[in-house]
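Hi team,

Filling in the usual template for the complex we talked about on Friday. All components are listed, including any nucleic acid strands or ligand strings, so the model treats them as one assembly.

SUBMITTER: L.P.
PURPOSE: interface mapping
COMPONENTS: two
RESIDUES: 1028
SEQUENCES:
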Amino acid sequence: MAAIYVVAAAVTCFKLLLIPSYRSTDFEVHRNWLAVTHSLPISQWYTDKTSEWTLDYPPLFAWMEFFLSQIAKHFDPEMLRVTNLNYASDATILFQRLTVIVTDFMYLFAAKKFCDVCVKKTKGKESVSSNIYQNPSLIMAVLLMANFGLLIVDHIHFQYNGVLMGIFILSIVCIYQNQFLQSALWFSILLNMKHIYLYVAPVYFVYLLRCYCYNPNKQGSKFSISSFSLLRLIYLGMIVLTVFGISFGPFIYMGQLSQVLSRLFPFKRGLCHAYWAPNFWALYNIADKAASIIGTKLKVLSSVAVEEASMTGGLVQEFSHTVLPSIKPIYTVILTLLAMLPALIHLFLNPQKGGQGFVRCLVLCGFASFLFGWHVHEKAILIIIIPLTLLILEKREDGRLYLFLSTIGFYSLFPLLFTQFETPIKIVLLILHCLYSFSSLSNIYRSASTMLPVVSWYESLYLLGIIPLEIYNSFIHHVLKLNISLPFIPLLLTSVYCSIGVLYAWLRFYSTTLKSSTHKTKTS
Amino acid sequence: MGLLVEVCVLVVISIALRWSVSQNTYSGQSKPPMYGDYEAQRHWMEITLNLPVSDWYRNTTNNDLQYWGLDYPPLTAYHSKICGYIAQYINPDWVRLYKSRGYESYYHKLFMRYTVLVADFLIFLPAAVLFYLAQDQLDDKSMLFGLMVILLYPGLILIDYGHFQYNGISLGLAVLAVACLGSELQMIGAALFTLALNYKQMELYHAMPFFTFLLGKCFKAGPFKGLFELIKIGITVIITFLLCWSPFLTSVESAKQVLTRLFPFNRGLYEDKVASFWCSLSVLIKLKNILSQENLVLLCLSTTLLCLLPSSLHLLYKPTITNFKYALVNSSLVFFLFSFQVHEKSILIPAISVCMLANREPLTSIWFLSISTFSMLPLLVKDGLIIPYIGLSVMFLIACVYISQPFNNQKPDSLSTLKKINFIISMVGAILLTGASQFIIPPPQLPDLFPVLISSYSCAHFLFFLLYFHFAQIFGDEIDVDRKISKSTRVQTSKKQKSIKKEN
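RESULT (copied from the run log):
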């Protein structure tokens, strides 16, 4: 369908316009990695410490940087010098921005493939077919390709999430088509490019084990342990091990495995990022803060102890709690796993729903890691939102949750862009996202809502609450001159407000996922 | 509801594009001593804020007219003064007399870009939306297409938000004036056009059709009623003019001073490499060397007037709104091609007229607008806007061609196929020239090779478009009948579909 190409081309052109935008330090991070992979031998990739932005992505990503650097030297060889810190000539900026745009083709390709393969064809209505507000497959394409979060994070803030998400979606498409080995291959490659996807690895493990290794002949028939196929497990293992071998092999050979791993998993960072991601810990922190303030007011706590606690918090960027127990990394791991467990068990017991059930579980695991993980970035919300996008055409409930979560999740990315020129861009793009997603989904799910379409009235109220919140953050806070004495208040408000929404969406999504299976078994 | 959302989406997209272009460099950024249009606009804020009205257009010790002297009509000056007040409130350094010359900073750029956005928000965007919403005979699809063309036209976005100017104001006022005339609001339309003319004298390109259209309407209305109408409109125009010029009407001399600033006949025939007829002709014959300055002016004047005649007389004879829109294109294009002292940015004036015809001439308007943006390429490259130029133009071309497909495929005959083939060849040519001008270094004896090639290529197109639009205006009635038939059938089919939907 030509319309999908038009959407892809228009989005790509828009990305070109964002080239001169603000760039975060991630730009320098990736420039440094270009330089490291280009000018140093492999043995020094994970040991070099010239820049503070050491290579902390897995080896396949480093190889991607290596290949990009081969082209980079034709743009500006200066950017490939390791000692040339914070180098940003026009050619460098152009080159790096273009690499993001070009590698994004992978994402566009994957999104198109998903729309072609996995979106059920509607009843062949000619009049509907070309309207981007009505055709389901086109709506999916627009919502995926013009994803607000990816535009903001990749093309302004600067990262390579597009290509990674593209590989991720490709592996999901393979699951939809029951091409399990290919899916495993793509996912292993993905894991070796960015290890944050480890969070969703259990889903792949459970699903491949259940649908590929058991019941090799009859899909969806009753589960029995005896149907286990060792041969298939070996196939799977070989694929995964080959990819990991190619990626980590050289470093194991050079005896650097522990060095590489220590770069990949730096547990020395704090529980929360500088700006709290809108997750469970943001609420936990604020509850602790509130309790300590109330405690000192009521003279239950001595103010000296409170001050000491917050002092240490400022120094090591670690938030030590005063009233509630302080959190250790292992707690977060346990909580995350606990939150994932019901979803994984549910997936194991209900594999008959195929790709759809698989994506549901991906979303739930994404939620669990985002809500309870250690040192979570606000950007990680994309690992929930993008798989959730794939579900919007399945059920009204999914569409509703997508509208709710994408609005709140994208809004929570606002603090990522704090420069003046980008303020109108982020506001306008969010408005655009809301206008389009609400109107197009209301065409699919007819709604008689009195406020925003598709979502319920209390969800509408909550979402509309963003408007006064943003007005306070950008104007009133400055007018009241609180930005000097209490500079962190807007960020705090944003993350607390959004975390309530994310938590709500998680619980709601969990209950619909678990309920749907019981309902189905009852009717069938 | 659905239509409203789609209009909003288009407007919001156009704002997103506009703002993302404004992050780019502006004309003359960090290029002392003269800088560029950005500095000119800032300098006017400084002048109008700090000097008395009587000195704005006069060379005084405090107002060096050689350094970006004010040469736009009074409304621009008032607008500058308002912006100047706001600038002074935010940071007095931005508009301090003399000391602020060449002032550049992140926040100043932000402020200047915001002034353009605010102006568009107040004038151009509402004008464009009203223009297309007011045409109730249009079906939703062609209305949205027209709106898309006028809102996403890359040339205007690049010049206003990249190069830096306030064309959106005068063009928006003109669009609004046309919308008013289309809705039988003659007096408001005339007043709005007078305002446009008083913001930028380039709007004179549009003056002839406005005049003949209103005059023709009065003729049609009958002797008494017509005369009465004419007097009403005449008084409206005169009062608007008097209001705009009141501070300068204290003496004949001060009014004359402004006028000589607005129409500097002592400048050259053309500046840089413009896609005007004279500039392209100079590749073959150097008229500048043959004729004196006065004769050149005369030659331009007579050619322009002669070429204005056919479309104007036709409009006078048949003053319909469609003929009026065609005449706007024809008149402004004649001015662009044949008049004296043409700037490459002046192509925006014919271009905005074509934008108003987008629903009638889908493919031709896309074609014209793409070529018009292309004709400004050397200027855009100088301003460092090549990447936004590529991004916006490709997006405009692909999106508009895709959306306009159902309109173009209505009558698949050999003529329209030929047109499509020509369109593709012409676009490929423009793309190749763009690529060549960026990557091929011209031979040293021909340093201006690519600017000349680009302007000649565009000029050839414009001459062809001039013929086409004249043909369409004068012989378009017969085609019109066909269109009406096909439109009524379309309406019927859409009604049928709606009723089917209801049944479902």
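MY TAKE: Residues 363 and 388 of chain A are 6 Å apart (CA to CA). Chain A touches chain B at residues 2-3, 6, 9-10, 13-21, 94, 127, 130, 133, 420-421, 424-425, 428-429, 431-432, 435-436, 439, 443 (CB under 8 Å).

Thanks, L.
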